[in-house]
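Appendix B, record 7
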Amino acid sequence: MEMGNVGRGRMGFLFLVVMIILGIAASIFDLFKSKEIKIDARRSPSVFENRPQRPPKDLNRREMQYVADAIIQRMGSGNLAFNAPKIMHIDEKRTVELLLSAVASIDELKSQLRAEGEKMGASIKISDQMEARLSGQNFSILAITPETQAVSGKENTEWKWEVSAKEAGKQTLHLTLSAFIGINGKPTPRVFRSFDVNIEVQVSPVERITRFVRDNWQWLWVTVLAPLCGWLWKSRKKKGIV
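Structure tokens (predicted):
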């Protein structure tokens, strides 16, 4: 009877040892499995990262105005100077030059203008990208430099146009300067200064005759030159010259 009790005690002890070993093995297995999952999750992109992001919400009118006001308030200031002729002749080519600087004064910029004409200047808000445009209804205008340029914080930014007048009388050139500001994720131009320059376009008697002949040569040929040539031919023929 005692031997049976001892045998059962040994069996119980062995069963307990086996259960403890199995529990330890299971714990070790779960530990390695959890680490493997963490490593894979660290190396693989998250499902949230692969999910397409919602586009930014469009700003309404009031919000865009608030953003624009805040950007304009933080913008730096600079100076500009440009030249413009007061008197021109028809088809005469003149150069209009504009200089913009974040550090130079208006007088310094005026002294650096090389083109002829009256020199004018003003202060203006500036950004890192600006646009200058020159227009006029009765002018032919060729932009020599790009109208939209990056603005330096140390050096001058220069614009140039070649201008020729097409009509006589009092004409007007319009110069506008715009800065680009980011509104709703888009660079948006905002005009900060505009100038209207009155120019007296003159025409000399020789220029007037030249333009008249150039613009009406067909009419002159039919009504004047052709009959005149015919009359001269007949006159020479009667005199026996031909």
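Remarks on this record: The radius of gyration is 43 Å. Residues 62-202 form a domain with the Immunoglobulin-like fold (CATH 2.60.40.10).
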